[in-house]
Amino acid sequence: MNVRSYNLCPMARTSGSHSDITGPRLRAAAQRLFARQGYAAVSMRQIAAEVGVQAGALYNYIPDKQGLLFDLMKSHLDDLIAAWQAEAKGQNPLDALECFTRFHIRFHLERPDAVFIAYMELRNLEPENFAVIEDLRKRYETVLEDILRAGKESGVFSLPDTKLATMAVIAMLTGVTTWYRDDGRLSRDRIERIYWNMVRKAVGA
């Protein structure tokens, strides 16, 4: 499979290009615009204006808008998987499930724009890039499925189908990003506790 790879590091600059453009600034600007307006509605000219440069200068850093979308999605999932790998997992399925629940909520509430793009813009990925992102998503989903399967096999959880339960739990947890507000009536810690109680009941623990 011939998959294009992007890292948003500066390419060789042409004479007169803007040296103050950085990968992080470009990524942040594109992420804000994609999350607010949708990938299809955002032009390279808009992204350039957000960063404060001419549109042509962007191509010193990225080959095209598709590469930018792919980079945003892949970076988000790479960070998600790496952060989970560094997390304390728990000594048994029940503890591991609580750890996963709290981790997923904390990680995603810090990145609502990245989460929105990662889920809503899959349809705009080219096939090769979609395959890469889908593989990363499945790697993360397998983490939860393995926890649920271990709990079912040990009699801790009562589940008719672990894969279906995996999809349902992840959808429920990720959905927090669509309505949570920092100035709302519930703190993040309170939300974690409420959702953990719901997840625990949902898997028959």
Automatic annotation (TrEMBL):
This is TetR family transcriptional regulator. Pfam families: TetR_C_24 (PF17932), TetR_N (PF00440). Residues 20-80 form the HTH tetR-type domain. It comes from the Bacteria. PROSITE patterns: HTH_TETR_2 (PS50977). It comes from Rhodovulum bhavnagarense. One of its GO terms (molecular function) is DNA-binding transcription factor activity. Residues 43-62 bind DNA. The lineage of its organism: Bacteria, Pseudomonadati, Pseudomonadota, Alphaproteobacteria, Rhodobacterales. InterPro entries: Homeodomain-like_sf, HTH-type_TetR-like_transc_reg, HTH_TetR, KstR2_TetR_C, Tet_transcr_reg_TetR-rel_C_sf. Keywords: DNA-binding.
